[in-house]
């Protein structure tokens, strides 16, 4: 995330839909105006995408150490694939203990 289009990246986030980025609410202290999608260097300008941020939606109960996330809305859809999110019922989620048990049994 950047304050100016050709500036350095300030924060990292996750693309959760073609027009939404999940990021920490503590980033509100910066004037984030641009999302950089799939850029490989902090000041990258030649690969990936730079898309203008049009809205910042913060959790209504945000406190510094709780509910510390917000969603950025992008001006246009990214062409990159968003990260996979869990289903609403948490089906398909393996906790660390389950994963370790399965690995030990193999």
UniProtKB/TrEMBL annotation:
Name of the protein in question: Peptidase S1 domain-containing protein
Native species: Phytophthora kernoviae
Annotated ranges, domain Peptidase S1: 12-91
This protein's UniProt keywords: Virulence
BP GO annotations: proteolysis
Signal peptide residue numbers: none
Top-level taxon of the source organism: Eukaryota
Record flagged with keyword Transport: no
GO molecular function, one term: serine-type endopeptidase activity
